[in-house]
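PT: before anyone asks, these are the final sequences, not the draft ones from last week. 763 residues across everything. Please model them as a single complex and drop the result in this thread when it's through.
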Amino acid sequence: MGRMITFAGALAAGAIAIGLPTQSALAQGKTLTLCWAAWDPANALVELSKDFTAKTNIQMKYEFVPWTNYADRFLNELNSKGKLCDVIIGDSQWIGGAAENGHYVKLNEFFDKEGIKMDDFMPATVLGYAEWPKHTPNYWALPAMGDAVGWTYRKDWFSRPELQAEFKKKYGRDLAPPATWTELKQVGEFFQGRDIDGKKVYGAYIFTERGSEGITMGVTNALYDWGFQYDNPKKPYQMDGFVNSPDAVAGLEFYKSVYKCCTPPGMTNAYMQEGLDAFKSGQVAMMMNWFAFFPGLYKDPNVGGDKIGFFINPGEKQHATQLGGQGISVVSYSDHKEDALQYIKWFAQPDVQKHWWALGGYSCHKAVLNDPSFPTSAPFAKDFLKSMEMVVDFWAEPSYAELLLDMQKRVHDYVVADKGTAKEALDLLVKDWEKVFKEEGKI
Amino acid sequence: MTDTSGPVVIRDRAGAVPAPPVARVIRGLSDRAIAWLFIAPTILLLLAINVFPLIWTIRLSFTNYRANKPNVPLRWLGLENYTSILADPDVWQAMQATAHFVIWTILLEVLFGFGLALLIDKKFRGHSFWTTVILLPMMLSPAVVGTFWTFLFQPQIGLFNYVVAFLTGIDPSSFQMIGDVPLAPWAIVLVDTWMWTPYVMLICLAGLRSIPNYIYEAAEVDRASKWRQFWSITLPMVLPFLMLAVLFRGIENFKMFDMVNLLTSGGPGSTTELASITLKREAFEKWRTGYSSAFAIILFVTVFGAANIYVKALNKVKQR
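LR: through. Structure below.
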């Protein structure tokens, strides 16, 4: 027996020595490039993917681009049929264009073969990140990173007895995270210009960025709550009376009033990073931002821990919030499609998804989200779940970039540059969007 | 023996070794053919990277082509792209913003550049040091300039606001150079003037140094005042150089993109959205390739036409 073991050991050692093709050895030298935005969750994904490399011996390379250049950089890459990315975590609004222009590999067959079911993922994320056309079972991505707009606030400031008393005297209610936009504005006004610990602070930070998507991703949170709709639910692409409805006009006017009354000076072109800077430096009492940043903020030594609180986007006439987040797709121009699919198969496993959430990524898998311990697993987890149940996304049409830039221009012109009225801005937006859809032959 | 053997060997070798084939071929060519041979690579390169893209752009400008949708059938639109651009109020707003930027930057850069050149032309203590200091801004990358001026203009922590506040006594956070609609167009003019005045100064300095001293000596003999010397000698003789600087800066600023894009992204709203920023958005964000090709051609014709008229004027000034 001893001899046999020795013989088997020698045989195995010999096999390794002469390089018999074990699975690991076969994967030797293989590398996948994953493209995404440069932000906290990307670092978590790097950490997570070490497990994939350990299991498959496929090395991972990363191409992370700052958010302000993310769409420009990767849409150019896809449009030029580049081979830089094998796997891409593309923004939710890209799905239409990427599917229709053949940038992404359709995943239906692969999902069927590997037993990956979209029913295992939260419906809003499947609709937002994976399907094109919407509400059809055609999948181009696996929901990878759930995200929505949420809010943080300075819990330590809110809990100060003297501020509590002053606020209650003025507004007749407790100083607490606002449930409506009207309340949010009141809290913003309360803190605006106030001296706290010898430092002048401001009410709220909201998105105002002009160049990419910032102000649109901010203003929609108010627009949805007042009743803005992208088009007639009964007649697709009929936008007049929906985009520029009196409610939508009121929502836009309100967003501008919050910008005017309650934001720090200089926030005329500010998005995620500027918001984080403003909050971390103790400038603002409340901050609008993506849930993706909340784990990092909670860990922040200066404003995290007990000092920070979280709340969902306030409501008004209705209650909704802007969808963020992305799905993970295989780029059809990649030379390593099989390995890329292997990565997605690995990523879809419930255990990996649990680890993903633990590391700071936002899983969309029901195995994670429906776990009874999930709402208490982080101070923002419950709010994340609530937000994901009320998300609305921007157009995901192939022409989304045009539609987005039109909205950026019209909204920024009105909110920041004081050009025209809210009604004029939304009327012009309807005209812009009608022109785009006419050119596309959709109206 | 030793002294004479070297040259003999060389002569022998030269006589013995036949001319290489290429040399023989070249020897058989005319001067004109050789000239063509030398300039052919450059011409081919120019055709490939300048002329061909230009012709291709002109062709695309009459179509509905979109680079992100190569499978959509190409449709010939005639002049539709051109007419819709010329009828678009947003395009005219961008052209207005560009005109404001170009006119004011040129005016300020010429004034300050010429003034600095007059100062630097005089010999004084630390002359070289100050020349180097003045030249520093133009040596920086526009991306760097755009980024650090964004910080300088920051209303809460920006040095610019504090300097203005120190000098005027107003609250530093009461104004936003790149966020206020009335101030933003001047903010980009200020930064461009800061960056490119040294360039105009250099050109003017070359003009000043090219004026022979004997002309001033003759004027001194004729008892011409310094003021009279400036108007009758300095200015006329530097004028061609000044006009050249205006031409260079005019063309550059008409195409200005990087610095302004980093400073304001065209905002607030569309206040500082120069034509080049609009063009970039149409071409590489909205992917309206045909439309943006037409826009590019309109801008090209505008700059080319204006530059040609200007060069003719410049030649006339030179001939005077």
